[in-house]
Recover the amino acids of this structure.
């Protein structure tokens, strides 16, 4: 429905700036994400009154205050549940859920995987700075093993979640990864996410200058990013590298990095990215790629509409029930099995 | 049409207890006989009690499932203290219930199950029929299993299904004993199995009649009883349980508000049935979301409320504990939300299938910070409809969470309900605003202090709310000390002003007297019965039963002041008494408490009241 | 440690029977599981006082009352957290966590995935009857889409979790699946699980006679089970079928069912099961196989000790800290930065 | 060694407030000056206050971080109402703090930041130095940024680091102003940066001295102050915050019990520091488990307790709300467990960095069913050690959860602590049983009603516990009504009997009088200061500060009865007052409440007390 309501008046990015002072630390990656979201919204031409941003608690979760839409700053970890209720109550709304790695992977982990499983039509942006920002620097479920943080003075001893892997494990239909240093790609990926029907999860590798500065530098750094990132596009070969001469091939059940031109490898051998494949085995391999063996995959890794959304199916069931109601009115219902005493 | 027995005695009321194994269909036959009695114009109250296991081992006391029914020619307020008639389909059922039957009661047993093996399973050392256990009772030993099976022999049922008809045999005997028309019993079976399982329908009907016929021939049942229709009632009635009444009351509130009903819930005994009932109501636009847990349930409801539905979450005590943080969110965002807590025995998992009133303090205070919300309680199975409706009305009109307390006793118990006209129910008018108005989310109605409500999708009304303290009027985040104090005060005062929208406290009985019995919620039936009995004996006591708990009715202190003594009776350790002490410290409160996972008995209450009155 | 303490005296299955009456419904699959666990324990020769069973709430979660070990019947969904605390507090204990599909996949979902991620050394037995038993028949997160249950009168509209898939998404190191109708295999799989260091998850397809009778019959039924189940064993080819002539092969990134002897397929073409492979891509494919396209995989699908356990690593950190303490005593600690006033 | 200033005035006490941007190092310089004062023998109390954002925009009022320090020649109980000296590194710092300084106070500003741009950011319309804002104050306009930078110019620091030394410049001025020895300041820097960052250490030391020297030359600081060492104290002291004291108290309890300490927790302001501190204590065998949420935190602790550790969980209000269900589990399983709740402003997310005392009712009642546990509260930063120790001792010896309440004010505030000898602390003896004894998990010590404790791994003691109601003695699951009533009663009575192990209530002041001021927990400092002041004026009032809340000391009613009036002062809407009304309904309680996310001011309390005394 939301898509149908086109507006005459042009909505600009400025329309999406709220009157509140943005209170993130200078240099925080969150600013760039906010800006990219505002651009994406302006471009998407969705009716601005239909947009709702919902978040949990964390630095990232202050987001709704800074964007001029309907907004709900919820409870730590519970944004996904609040957003679910909003979308189910009014499926016409364009719902965005903003969350951090602590918010969605720690306390909100269960709501996150259930949201993904139910495939409720909304867009999740996961600000992954691999640290608890707002509480000042404890490790999160995505913090690399061995990291020394305020709550792990001897290094963490937990395997970090990879959000994409967990999304696959919960049967997600959309997953993308972007870095906060590339505004244009962010905006494009957000636009893709907004087009997808079902739960779309975008993981943004976000820098926390204060408590985890440069955590993503091996991926986002100017010198290394071309070699350490592979930006995936549906239908395009999986090529990367400064020289655009590296690529991925599939060998049995594993991906391998190859160099085009070496060992007889030509561009034709390189795997073509099929984001739309309902079978997510390859997506599962792609989201798990880590340095140094592999480049880190960015872009839309999975985009599939192979299963109905919870909200649409519920609407259908309600329509069907209304078309053929068991009883016509509440009065009729409560009067069933009744008897008159005179 | 059926030959009349030798002797018919007219009685005012009778209490029947059905007891057997969990799989024996005791709940079904109980409901069946309730409906029949209702159609026959009797007043009634019922209460099932079942084990917390699904089918605890056959033949053991732990596995006994029971259903108690009180039918009357006059008003009936409880399922009754003790039974006049007990149906015990096996020794365990006898063992579990002997202490709940009157002296001299009629006990109908399935003699086919009274063998050595079953005595032992039930924990009897000797044959209870021979060791004096049932001396002084009118024991009817009927070969129920055997006769049931032979009745359906030629129908080609499998052994299990044939065996399972035996509840109808026992029931048939009751129809005889109480001169009830088999027609209603048969119709019930027809509705239950009817078109889908015609063979089962036929079998059950046959066995029902077979039991009836058997009873007619048994010496011990020569005398039968007649409970005449109740006279002082008029209107359209039906038998209803608290959980169903709650569900329908919520639908009615949504309808009168012109909103859709949203339920975010997670199954938990004894609240699950509300979820199940509402899940069937999609034709009314009802949306039920079975969440992954209680926290997701309430948070999704908060979302649905933000989006403009009448949002509800239902649970029991442990679930309410999990929802505390989110209730605080609804308090600070000032969104309408109904939270139904069907109380059960605690603490922790406690006694999941037993009623208790021990969540009151939790409902009032179980959250961080100063976090006031409205608390109300239903007091009979049928008035769950009214209080669910009022919960919705108050939530929507006052932009506040409302906790509605019921309990396992109300939820599963039933009584006759005088069916209202939905269109005559009060209107519900949420404080909506028009598109493009000059909207400040925390601007308030100066009289009620209620903020106004703009919904996502409305033009020109974009705004943001959340769980951080908000600035007065604008709703922006504010850490200002004086603003915080002001907002804390406003939230409390807003809830207090709901007092103007609720009825004054009425006492049952004289306006003044020696003793005011105070109760709240589900204990009403036993309390009113006991108070009436004492009043009939000429005692000067009255009952004040609270349905509105926060805020309490305006005239509460005034009512209290008109009695020499006050006793607060509750199924907990004294939570309401303590709440009264903090709210009206000027009075002295006596207490009567019981915490056994059981409702009050009328007799114990009377004893207590008399003791105080004589002191 | 637990493994080291061997006992002289023979422990029998009877030692593991508690004095409590078992209160499941006659015919419930739980009985067989209880019996298999008792057999496995007797066979494992672990010191019986070191065994602790921890559960949440549900029919299945009554389990600890029926087994004569230390036992803790916890809160709904929280068994994993309780068990984690027990194991961390005393790593010598042999901890088993009993849970249902509602208990572990609904309310306990977050604790479940975090337990798996942390790889705390314990054995989880997930009784998957695809229904809420104890609350009398509402759908659970594993209930097949479209199922009509007490809380879904029009059929569910949610994609069910596959526990194995979720375990992979959470980086699990051990996953097995068994059916409640095969006591011997159950016992063997439980023994395997108990040998594994780290979190082992065994999903038992369990029948609830009362509320979901025959839900697994397409897998467990006598006539179909050989064709509809593939029992995996490490190092053995993936062959199944009444005639033992069907098998699985890997083609690109997908598994295919083939018939040996047809289209030139010989036993040699059949994939060999490598449960120990640290890369779980194939395991991910195996756990997701569903009827009718594939047989359902049973047996130990993944068994890998590629990452340390939380408890052992913590013990190491503590040992290290004790060997080289920053301060020697609490007295010394609190006296730091102090001054004497005389 | 340093040239003395013209005029030195001896003063009893002085309050200094450091204020600047979040990144300006105000907390650090505050601590530095505190330590120096402590070493110089002054008594002290400190309180930091920072925004809930990490680094809210530079130069804005929202971004101001402050640190208040009260140092005295006599006993000092609070960080002080108003400041004698304010350091304001920018206009926002001035704006945020002008209402918290005394008339005529000295205000040291970094004039380099007082330009048009910064006035505006701070929300000033005109230059506050010119518009009368600071008229009547002793304003010292120092070019702090500029001089700091030039001091370190030749060290080759990056610009940011150079800029960041400015807090030391301001601090150096204070050292001059209060005649403090720079040696301690330099040592502090050495400890902080020392070997790891020698360049930073050097830079900071230089700037500190540079500030000192600058002050010496400024006209406005001709007069300096001397706060002499406190006399009536002896022993080993250190400066300590409540969170650190809590952490160490828990370690001490584990040590005295011979157990390992286990903490299952989830970070939340203002409790996180306890987790962080204990995570560093692996050499004492301390295990910290950073759980996925608060629920996992407490449940893992319950597991650890079952396994035999001294188990603890730490949180703040919203987290306590989430733990309610699990606390009930600890209650019914009767396992030792310490729950620390560092209270903050509510409801919901509320005011996360501000103190409040509004979780009392939640601690007492925030659970389903009748679910009693022990509740205690620390009342000063340093005595958090003692009450954490006692929480552990009571939990272990009485097999019960103990909720310990502190708040953001105690947690982050500091004072001098008289360091105890660990080996002289009381012994802790949990009710362990020997292997192969005749163990019944719910058999009780007849005197204390405490059950005994067998640990997994013990031979011959296998048993099972859980959240369903348990049978007396055996601990088997039981649905028996009378057993339930008995167990509910036993659990309550067990908690009540803890009264025999806690000290009697002592009042500060005369035993009887016109007014008893009642407080609990963290408000002690302000209350005792105000009460002492009034006493000094000859008023007949005393203070009763509660640390033991459930149960309350035995002699409570007796103490109350000796005063004509009672006033209960709390940073909430009256929760303790209400709790007293339900527990001792025979007394009348006046109330003084404040709910601004701020501690009481001594002046407001005195005014209130005088008002009542004169009424
Ligand atoms: C119930 C509850 N528990 C804990 C907290 C404290 N808390 C606030 S934000 C946060 C973690 C933030 O981390 P993340 O979600 O990664 O967001 P970031 O700040 O890094 O953007 C925590 C633990 C809380 N507010 N509420
Ligand atoms: C906090 C809480 N919420 C809900 C419940 C009710 N409850 C008990 S068991 C259960 C689900 C049981 O399903 P499952 O885990 O699959 O176990 P099964 O009974 O099928 O073995 C539910 C919802 C509860 N006891 N506690
Ligand atoms: S603490 Fe980190 S994540 Fe939070 S606002 Fe600052 S830079 Fe951003
Ligand atoms: S209800 Fe189902 S799962 Fe529960 S005991 Fe009965 S058969 Fe087993
Ligand atoms: Mg983060
Ligand atoms: Mg189940």
């Amino acid at each position: 429905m939301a898509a149908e309501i086109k507006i005459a008046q042009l909505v600009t990015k400025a329309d999406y700036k709220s009157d509140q002072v943005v209170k993130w630390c200078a240099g925080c990656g969150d600013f760039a994400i906010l800006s990219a979201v505002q651009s994406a919204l302006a471009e998407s031409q969705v009716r601005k009154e239909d947009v709702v941003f919902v978040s949990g608690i964390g630095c990232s979760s202050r987001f709704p205050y800074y964007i001029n839409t309907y907004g709900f700053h919820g409870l730590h970890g519970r944004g996904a549940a609040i957003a679910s209720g909003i979308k189910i109550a009014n499926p016409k709304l364009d719902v965005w859920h903003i969350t951090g790695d602590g918010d969605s992977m720690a306390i909100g982990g269960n709501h996150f995987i259930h949201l993904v499983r139910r495939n409720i039509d909304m867009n999740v942006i996961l600000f992954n700075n691999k640290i608890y920002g707002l509480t000042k620097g404890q490790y999160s479920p995505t913090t690399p093993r061995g990291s020394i943080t305020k709550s792990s003075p001897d290094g963490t001893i937990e395997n970090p979640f990879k959000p994409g892997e967990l999304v696959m494990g919960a049967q997600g239909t959309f997953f993308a990864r972007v870095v906060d240093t590339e505004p244009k790609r962010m905006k494009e990926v957000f636009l893709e996410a907004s087009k997808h029907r079902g739960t779309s999860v975008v993981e943004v590798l976000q820098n926390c200058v204060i408590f985890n500065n440069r955590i993503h530098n091996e991926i986002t750094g100017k010198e290394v990013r071309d070699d350490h990132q592979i930006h995936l596009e549906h239908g395009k070969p999986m090529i990367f590298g400064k020289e655009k001469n590296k690529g991925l091939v599939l060998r049995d059940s594993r991906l391998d990095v190859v160099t085009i031109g070496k060992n007889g490898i030509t561009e034709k051998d390189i795997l073509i990215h099929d984001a739309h494949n309902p079978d997510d085995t390859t997506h599962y391999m792609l989201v798990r790629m880590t340095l140094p063996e592999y480049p880190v995959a960015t872009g839309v890794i999975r985009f599939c509409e192979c299963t109905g959304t919870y909200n649409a199916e519920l609407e259908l069931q309600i329509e069907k029930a209304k078309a053929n109601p068991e009883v016509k009115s509440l009065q009729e219902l409560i009067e069933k099995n009744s008897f008159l005493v005179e | 049409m059926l030959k009349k027995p030798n002797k018919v005695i007219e009685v005012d009321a009778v209490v029947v207890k059905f007891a057997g194994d969990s799989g024996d269909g005791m709940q079904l036959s109980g409901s069946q006989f309730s409906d029949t009695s209702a159609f026959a114009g009797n007043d009634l109250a019922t209460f099932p009690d079942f084990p917390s296991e699904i089918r605890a081992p056959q033949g053991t006391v732990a596995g006994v499932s029971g259903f108690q029914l009180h039918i009357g020619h006059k008003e009936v307020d409880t399922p009754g203290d003790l039974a006049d008639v007990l149906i015990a389909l096996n020794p365990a059922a006898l063992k579990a219930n002997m202490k709940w039957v009157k002296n001299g009661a009629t006990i109908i047993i399935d003699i086919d199950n009274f063998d050595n093996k079953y005595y032992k399973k039930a924990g009897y050392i000797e044959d209870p029929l021979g060791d004096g256990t049932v001396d002084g009772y009118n024991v009817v030993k009927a070969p129920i299993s055997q006769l049931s099976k032979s009745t359906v022999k030629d129908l080609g049922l499998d052994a299990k299904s044939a065996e399972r008809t035996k509840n109808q045999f026992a029931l048939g005997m009751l129809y005889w004993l109480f001169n009830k028309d088999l027609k209603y019993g048969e119709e019930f079976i027809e509705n239950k199995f009817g078109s889908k399982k015609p063979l089962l329908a036929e079998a059950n009907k046959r066995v029902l009649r077979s039991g009836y016929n058997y009873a007619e021939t048994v010496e011990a049942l020569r005398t039968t009883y007649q409970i005449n229709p109740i006279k002082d009632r008029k209107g359209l009635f039906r038998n209803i349980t608290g959980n169903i009444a709650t569900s329908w009351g919520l639908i009615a509130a949504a309808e009168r508000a012109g909103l859709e009903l949203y339920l975010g819930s997670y199954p938990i005994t004894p609240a699950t049935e509300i979820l199940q009932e509402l899940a069937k109501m999609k034709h009314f636009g009802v949306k039920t979301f079975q969440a992954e847990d209680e926290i997701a349930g309430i948070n999704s409801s908060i979302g649905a409320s933000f989006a403009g539905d009448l949002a509800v979450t239902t649970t029991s005590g442990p679930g309410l504990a999990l929802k505390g943080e989110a209730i605080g969110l609804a308090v600070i965002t000032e969104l309408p939300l109904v939270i139904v807590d069907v109380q059960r025995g605690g603490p922790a998992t406690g006694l999941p299938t037993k009623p208790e009133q021990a969540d009151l303090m939790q409902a009032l205070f179980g959250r961080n910070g100063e976090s006031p919300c409205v608390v109300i309680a239903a007091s009979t199975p049928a008035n769950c409809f009214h209080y669910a409706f009022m919960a919705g009305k108050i939530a929507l009109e006052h932009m506040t969470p409302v906790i509605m307390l019921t309990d396992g006793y109300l939820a599963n118990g039933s009584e006759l309900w005088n069916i209202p006209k939905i269109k005559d129910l009060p209107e519900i008018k949420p404080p909506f605003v028009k598109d493009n108005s000059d909207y400040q989310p925390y601007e308030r109605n100066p009289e009620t202090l209620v903020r106004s409500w703009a919904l996502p999708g409305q033009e020109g009304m974009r705004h943001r709310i959340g769980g951080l303290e908000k600035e007065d009027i604008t709703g922006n985040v504010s850490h200002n000390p004086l603003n915080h104090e002001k907002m804390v005060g406003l939230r409390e005062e807003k809830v207090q002003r709901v007092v103007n929208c609720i009825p004054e406290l009425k006492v049952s009985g004289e306006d003044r007297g020696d003793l005011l019995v105070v109760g709240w919620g589900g204990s009403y039936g036993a309390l009113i019965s006991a108070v009436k009995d004492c009043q009939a004996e000429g005692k000067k006591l009255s009952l004040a039963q609270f349905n509105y708990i926060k805020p309490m009715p305006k005239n509460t202190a005034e009512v209290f002041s008109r009695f020499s003594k006050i006793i607060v009776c509750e199924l907990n350790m004294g939570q309401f008494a303590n709440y009264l002490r903090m709210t009206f410290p000027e009075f002295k409160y006596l207490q009567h408490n019981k915490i056994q996972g059981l409702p009050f008995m009328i007799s114990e209450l009377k004893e207590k009241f008399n003791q105080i009155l004589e002191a």
Summary: The domain at 13-215 of chain C is CATH 3.40.50.970 (Rossmann fold). Confidence is low (pLDDT under 50) at residues 1-7 of chain C. Chain C touches chain D through 59 residues (CB under 8 Å).
